[in-house]
Amino acid sequence: DAGVIQSPRHEVTEMGQEVTLRCKPISGHNSLFWYRQTMMRGLELLIYFNNNVPIDDSGMPEDRFSAKMPNASFSTLKIQPSEPRDSAVYFCASRPGTGVGYTFGSGTRLTVV
Amino acid sequence: KQEVTQIPAALSVPEGENLVLNCSFTDSAIYNLQWFRQDPGKGLTSLLLIQSSQREQTSGRLNASLDKSSGRSTLYIAASQPGDSATYLCAVYAAGNKLTFGGGTRVLVKP
Fold it and tell me: Over the stretch B62-75, which tens digit does the pLDDT of each residue have?
């Protein structure tokens, strides 16, 4: 089991550009979560999917953020247009079911200049 | 709204001492609580998961307790080593399928 796989590991982009972060959850896990980590706010839940369906996106900061899960093995988080304040580490996590722990990916460190 | 607090925010101990990390949460209606470790610039590694019906979990030198009624969990690390230096995060899983994190405790174990 390769764990939760995120790409890219690092992304540096200019303000205004579109950024796409990718996540492959653990096979068989039916819940997927996107988190953002900053020094000021810690770890915040952005959105989560259950069986590929977005359940709660109340943590998505603005309309510039969007997330999709076209199938059980792939999800994307897109920021368009990106801004310097979006700079953070973005984590993807998955879980097989209720009552079981979460597994996190290694994260994508995003820097918007 | 569930709030999770970890005190202290930072802790420095000499090698060999036992570590005691505290976590408190405001809503006791949780399904489980999970402790993670995060090394600088790295992702989160799960250490222990305690179900709401359990009082504690143990793994090697780590022991985590849970008192749901008082909204508290404690992570004990026995005989600390420099390799234990990291940030330790507590997270509770509650209604709404959400995992809410505390701010973490940054631990430094000095040789």
Answer: 999 999 999 999 99
